[in-house]
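Figure 2 data, in text form.
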Amino acid sequence: MTTSADRLITVFGSINADMIFEMDQLPAPGQTLLARKFRIEAGGKGANQAVAAARDGAAVAMVGAVGTDALAEVALAGLKDSGVDLSHVATVARPTGCAGINTDSQGRNQIVVALGANASLSRSQLDTALLTRSSHILLQMESPVAEVEAVIARGRAAGIHCILNLAPAIPLPFEALRACAMIIVNEDEAGALAKWLNCGPGAVELHRALGVDIVRTLGGEGAEGCSAAAGMQRVAARPIKPVDTTAAGDCFIGVLAAELARGSALAGAMQRASTAAAICCTRRGSQSSLPRHQETREAHERWARNR
């Protein structure tokens, strides 16, 4: 398991407190339902992906922002527990970012996010010293678009691999998309990106349109990727019964980034990430559902033997 300083993953993104309501069914518009259970735990796409990568053995630094309210400690708890470097997390005069999450008995969810302090995230927090130490920068779209664009440009200029999770699907200039080493999307995000680029939503079509590595997650159908080095890659979803899919996508991305930072090829990284995401789906919660390195390794070896 490699955690050397020259393989640092810097995550530039959101830090939230998640308010999770466990439901028998998801509410329809205008409908009020009682939840079976309620809890608050750490979340946010950026923080989730940072925790997933750190638990998988990567050295990770978080660049983000929280408020001065009581939710800040909740939002930072998983990052602290996972050993993520928090020296570049700012405290600002805004509420800590927050998400309201409804999950049902089939593992489906509804999520609403208030950016709060995440709207104050600034490129200036990614200083030269941290940039110099980083081999990969992992970004999402729960932060100001101009700041995401600026960090991608800085990373590209410094020769750092920028991995963009285009979630939510907010438009970025073509030049910023082209400056990424990899873009990761789910099916909805791939559809939005395809419309902007006037191409098909598959990994191959998006790769041809942008010339960067593409990974498209497909829920219960697994994931597909396309790169100049490896061509088209496809991995199947692991055979599990999902309990809660809330953090599965972030789990996949964090573990994928960790495996790529260790020097693995795209196909192997996708296989390991798929295993970790499957484990995540069998547990309830956001960061609390994210697996650690050894359990992912053991499950990956077990599934490989049974194929």
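Caption note: The radius of gyration is 18 Å.
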